[in-house]
Design a protein that fits this description.
The chain is α/β, with parallel strands linked by helices. It has one domain (4-210): Formyl transferase, N-terminal domain (Rossmann fold, 3-Layer(aba) Sandwich), CATH 3.40.50.170. It is built from 6 helices and 9 strands, in the order E-H-E-H-E-H-E-H-E-H-E-E-H-E-E. The strands form 2 sheets. A 7-stranded mixed β-sheet has the order 3-2-1-4-5-6-7, with helices on one face. It is globular. The structure holds 5-O-phosphono-beta-D-ribofuranosylamine (GRF). Residues 21-25, 98-99, 119-121, 182, 185 line the site of 5-O-phosphono-beta-D-ribofuranosylamine (GRF).
């Protein structure tokens, strides 16, 4: 499967952003577009929660936005059909999940195959699901982070596009870790979308290859305890 749009669409890439909450990731995408780091346009922001602050953000930036309530539909498939019709109606080429608190059904996956991205606040496949910063702390991992991935039928299980790692420190609270991870989310989500827009992503099996990218050298370790005197002082 190749999600590569190169030559098949005109820039700017048309996005539909799905939200349920505060929308800080939506904001990072808006900021990246406005500062011309991301060659895309948000055609619509759709929320399943009328109280989502993300809607205010869309409004403030003059972006079309609407609410769609699950309770108005007899089934999840009917809800997803309506969602997919709305997105297609806006000519959306890439669906961006930005804190959208619903499982995406087959209806959406078939309408947008490998054209739905999600961001998750852990280094997948560790800690899929909810409350993952707490789970990472409770488990005692020394690194956590965030993952941008394509959405498939599983829970946070689709092909991984980009990850950023952050250290987990001894005195961290859940809020500390959330904040540290969120700062990275805001950095890598617009990047992943730009890579898609530039047609630089190719999927082979589970792996996503990024053309013209650089390998990362070296290893990270946490904690650095200076046992072998490799840290001055
Ligand atoms: C983020 O932590 C994201 O990783 C997860 O939901 C949260 C959304 O936050 N999928 P926001 O609404 O973008 O502020």
């Amino acid at each position: 499967m190749n999600p590569n749009f190169q030559g098949k669409h005109k820039l700017p890439l048309r996005l539909g952003v799905l939200v349920s909450g505060s929308g800080t990731n939506l904001q990072s995408i808006i900021d990246a577009i406005e500062s011309k780091r991301l060659n895309a346009v948000i055609k619509t922001v759709i929320s399943d929660n009328p109280q989502a602050f993300a809607l205010e953000r869309a409004k403030k930036h003059g972006i079309q936005h609407e609410v769609i309530l699950k309770k108005d539909f007899p089934s999840r498939d009917a809800f997803d059909s309506s969602l997919s019709e709305r997105l297609s109606g806006h000519g959306v080429e890439l669906v961006v999940l930005a804190g959208f608190m619903r499982i995406i059904s087959k209806v959406m996956l078939e309408a947008f195959p490998m054209r739905i991205m999600n961001i998750h606040p852990s280094l997948l496949p560790s800690f899929p699901g909810l409350d993952v910063q707490k789970k990472a702390l409770d488990f005692g991992v020394k690194f956590s982070g965030c993952t941008v991935h394509f959405v498939d039928e599983g829970l946070d299980s689709g092909p991984i596009i980009i990850q950023a790692a952050v250290p987990v420190n001894d005195n961290d609270t859940v809020e500390d870790l959330k904040k540290r991870i969120l700062a990275e989310e805001h950095r890598i989500y617009p990047q992943a979308i730009e890579l898609f827009a530039e047609g630089r992503l190719t999927i082979k099996g589970r792996r996503v290859f990024v053309s013209r990218s650089e390998d990362v050298a070296g290893a990270l370790e946490n904690p650095r305890a200076s046992i072998f005197g490799d840290i001055p002082g």
